[in-house]
Design brief:
The chain is of the alpha/beta class. The chain has 17 helices and 14 strands. It is elongated, with a radius of gyration of 24 Å.
Length: 520
């Protein structure tokens, strides 16, 4: 007879099912004991973040530790390249990202870049990549997608999404098309609030859904949900929690039969109303198969909390047992498939310069009439980089910009990086000084550049009024300045020379610096 203090066999079974559908992150560069216990109890997936990564060799050791517990364990990562990188979070991305690839519009190049990423992930022991972003960035003021998208045109995003899926999966790593049903036409960051897509079902079907269809035709096995409200389909529940969107639309109309994983379930778009446990239960009930968690809430306590919430939801009838069984079966099926792909595909992990090739091809240059002599730069310039606050999908510590590579090409280059806070009385102001942005720009930019060329670097300037205002003041005093526009371009061509990189990665900055220095 079982002791009343021990969980029943039914409770143990439900616990195993619950742990199967969770995809938690953890802290540290080695495997925590609670993760080992979880894998023994049913945990089938883990997610790696920048905090888990030191270098490729360490990641390979970490994934080998994990696979020693279960050789088919799903080891996922969010490696879009471009602005969102985990493997290169501390060094800066060596590939330019989706917007640059869409600007070049060469699907063979996109496929090659994705294959290169896949080779690196495969060598590191990672089997699932939460990429590519299949979002059509139709709102230029979008605060969370931007340069992560292949562009604002549905046809461009569709063909490059398919190419990215083909390239990554040819290297033995599973791709994941995100963020369904499309996060491009939004103006709110779902890390902080609930975005809303106002288009009709017909408009969404024509503009936002085709890239996901293209990904499915290319063989994608995973789709990630978006934490957004699309009233054309469901006026109450965000897509991540909505059976009308995940079951009726994604599986019914579009015919997707693979794994559906949520965006980070701790994001405010869903937790502000439902809590992290409530959002988790509602997501599985609504049709999601796997719950990504751990970007912000990583650890054993969150894992246990969500496990208990799922078990209790089955016991009280909130979550049908058939639904969690179905979700767990899909996770297990995908784990077996992705594990076999990891073992079957041999990849060449030799270093590649495809990222720099792509960044160079994405560079666009316009010159004001009569200013042809400004480039190449003569002597070391002064560089000012105007830096916005990054959204939580982008690691704010990841190196970017033009000053660092330019200082290597032109020794003696000086630079300053300014934020909105700096220009409104922040850290760079002298104690007691008035919060005067004009005075600060004079002291930190115009005075040091008096006898030098001036290079002004902006990132997503169209979304930041303070940045556009600072740039306008600088160009008013120095019309001979060179402007390097990183991120999403705003369509204007300010400055004597205007460079557009279509991204803000380290390699995009290198491509721009090469051009400025006349080294290509």
């Amino acid at each position: 007879m079982e002791s009343s203090s021990r969980p029943s066999s039914r409770h143990q079974q439900l616990t195993r099912l619950a742990q199967t559908v969770l995809q938690p992150g953890f802290v540290g560069t080695t495997v925590p004991d609670w993760v080992r216990r979880g894998i023994a109890g049913g945990l089938t997936s883990v997610v790696l973040f920048g905090r888990n990564i030191v270098d490729p060799e360490q990641v390979a050791r970490l994934t080998a530790e994990l696979r020693a517990e279960n050789r088919d364990l799903i080891i996922a990562i969010d490696e879009e390249a471009g602005d969102v990188t985990r493997l290169e979070a501390w060094t800066g991305a060596s590939r330019p990202g989706n917007l640059a690839l869409g600007a070049v519009d060469d699907v063979d190049l996109t496929e090659s870049v994705a294959r290169d990423i896949g080779r690196e992930l495969h060598a590191a022991g990672i089997s699932l990549n939460y990429a590519p972003s299949a979002d059509v960035n139709s709102n230029p003021l979008n605060p969370v997608i931007g340069a992560r998208s292949f562009g604002a045109r549905t046809d461009v995003v569709s063909r490059h999404t398919a190419a990215w899926v083909r390239g990554l999966q040819s290297a033995g790593v599973a791709a994941c098309a995100k963020h369904f049903p499309g996060h491009g036409d939004t103006s709110v960051d779902s890390h902080h609030g609930l975005p809303r897509v106002s288009g009709s079902a017909e408009e969404i079907a024509a503009t936002a859904l085709p890239p996901f269809v293209a990904a499915m035709k290319a063989g994608v096995r995973v789709v990630m949900t978006a934490h957004l409200l699309a009233p054309a389909y469901d006026a109450e529940l965000p897509a991540t929690l909505s059976p009308r969107i995940l079951v009726d639309l994604l599986r019914g109309e579009l015919g997707f039969d693979g794994l559906v994983v949520t965006d980070g379930i701790e994001m405010s778009a869903v937790t502000a109303r439902y809590g992290i446990d409530g959002a988790t239960v509602r997501a599985v009930t609504g049709g999601a198969d796997a719950i990504c968690v751990g970007g912000e809430h990583a650890g054993e306590s969150t894992f246990d909390e969500l496990t208990d919430a799922l078990v209790q939801a089955v016991l009280d009838g909130t979550l049908p047992e058939a639904r969690i069984n179905e979700a767990a079966a899909r996770v297990a099926e995908f784990a077996a498939w992705s594990g076999s792909r990891m073992r079957a595909v041999a990849t060449d992990d030799a270093a590649s310069d495809i990222g720099l090739v792509a960044a160079r091809r994405a560079l666009r240059v316009s010159t004001e009439r009569g200013r042809d002599s400004v480039l190449p730069l003569v002597g070391a310039p002064h560089v000012v980089e105007l830096s916005p606050t990054m959204n939580l999908a982008v690691d704010g510590q990841t190196p970017w910009g033009v000053a660092a590579p330019l200082s290597e090409l032109l020794p003696g280059t000086t630079s300053v990086r300014l934020t909105e806070a700096d220009l409104t009385g922040g850290a760079l102001g002298e104690p007691g000084d008035p919060a005067d942005a004009g005075d600060l720009l004079d002291r930190k930019v115009l005075d040091p550049a008096a006898e030098r060329s001036l290079v002004v670097v902006v990132r997503d300037a169209a979304r930041h009024g303070w940045m556009s205002a600072a740039m306008a003041r600088l160009l008013g005093s120095r019309p001979d300045a060179v402007v390097v526009e990183m991120g999403v371009p705003n369509g204007a061509s300010p400055g004597a020379v205007h460079l557009v990189t279509h991204g803000a990665t380290r390699v995009s900055g290198l491509a721009a610096a090469e051009y400025l220095a006349g080294r290509r």
